[in-house]
Amino acid sequence: MNGGNLPKHTLIENDLLSKIKDSTYKPNTLIPKETELMEIYGVSRPTVRQAIQALVDKGLLAKRKKRGTIVKQNKISQEFTHTIESYDDDVKNKGLTPKTHVILLQKELPNNEVCEHLEIGKNDYVFKLVRLRYADDQPVVLVTSYIPYKVFPDLDKFDFNDVSLYATLDSHDCPILQVRRKLEVLSADETTADLLNIDENDPIFYFHTTGTTKNDVPAEYSIAKYRGDINSFEIFIKR
């Protein structure tokens, strides 16, 4: 390293930054361990830690318990706060590749929360659909959706690893025409953290969505848990 009179930790910080910018260290990958960086740069652990912390403070690196330090991905701007669009279409429009992994699809009786949002009785069956959604192979959001059985009794005949829920509802004369969303910011529990590849208690955006079809009939209630570190949300307001 050659940087004149710059402190060693600043030289290391600059070199790591250069490697992040030229994709030597790619987003969502681990940089070398502290012991490896000590050998690479010929410095002490406190010097390495100071350089890493500077990049953490700038939002370029993130420390992960039991895993190491990763290069942070640029935030994905989610625009569904002012549009009704499928996740796949939204991700594709940003030049990213969407992928879905269905964790669960089953028919069950609803709890009180689901009954209230779908305006159904406790003995009215719903389909529960749990999906982990990705962008460029990175888990982005965990979504649990509830669809009234009486609205779409054939829902379990579709493979939602490959097809969109909204597109399926559209094609079967049950389009979601209006949605109401509520946002909270919560801490990730152990299961959510594991699925989204974040640490337990990391912040997540927690959206409740109720979608209605023709004649204001509730046709979907979903709970979406978005990673706080790689998602941002655009709000469009017109006077």
TrEMBL record:
Q: Name one GO biological process term.
A: negative regulation of DNA-templated transcription
Alphabetically list the UniProt keywords. DNA-binding, Transcription, Transcription regulation
GO MF entries: DNA binding; DNA-binding transcription factor activity
Superkingdom field = Bacteria
Q: Gene3D superfamilies annotated for this entry?
A: Chorismate lyase-like, Winged helix-like DNA-binding domain superfamily/Winged helix DNA-binding domain
Say if the entry is tagged with keyword Transcription: yes
Q: Which InterPro entries match?
A: Bact_HTH_transcr_reg, Chorismate_lyase_/UTRA_dom_sf, Tscrpt_reg_HTH_GntR, UTRA, WH-like_DNA-bd_sf, WH_DNA-bd_sf
Q: Which residues form the HTH gntR-type domain?
A: 6-74
Keyword Transcription regulation belongs to the record: yes
Q: Return the protein name.
A: Transcriptional regulator
Species this chain originates from: Companilactobacillus heilongjiangensis
Native organism taxonomy = Bacteria, Bacillati, Bacillota, Bacilli, Lactobacillales
